[in-house]
């Protein structure tokens, strides 16, 4: 009997898993809202909704990000069915204000039709190494397509490497714990570094990078971490990684 109940409980949990399709549909609704400069069409929870912009609670309706329609030059999204969250990158180079938005959406349990959190790092003119057109050029050349199933990195490895990367400023051994692909590249704001496993921080700061929020998508070998980049001074930040063949292929950062 106990065993049967356990099986039933497992089945209940399994059916409550949110789907990739649902997550990506919600992410698309956010892209549509940004494109239109309007909240309509975003299914925000009426009982538990929070908007975070650059690590601070804010009013989504009054956000400068939605103050005007944005022409979107590049967007891509990843989906984390375990955390029921998505990550969307948006690059807009040509409006009155250029933007690079790194946004995570979160949903309650299995219900991807309701959004409980829009959590965005919104970089614009004046942000660290900000040049949206230059960033666009670097990102357009990248391939974030699906990783063949047999070669996908595990969720654990993605989280481990993402965390190790953010720990490099406080832990002198962190950089050495990561395997770097030979043709790995870093796009930090608009700054481009290849290969990326050179000139890495080896400790030195006493302040760990905090407030880490994860979206992990094994299908494209990616982890995005929104955080407060405290090691060098309290910057709202997004660090996204892609692993190929178990090694770091891309690092993309958006820092305000
Ligand atoms: C409200 O939403 C947040 C973000 O998704 C979640 O972490 C939290 O548990 C929710 N709170 C309640 C009471 O459901």
From TrEMBL:
Residue ranges constituting the DUF8021 domain according to the UniProt record: 151-255
Protein name, UniProt field: DUF8021 domain-containing protein
Stretch forming the signal peptide: 1-16
Pfam family, one: DUF8021
Keywords: Signal
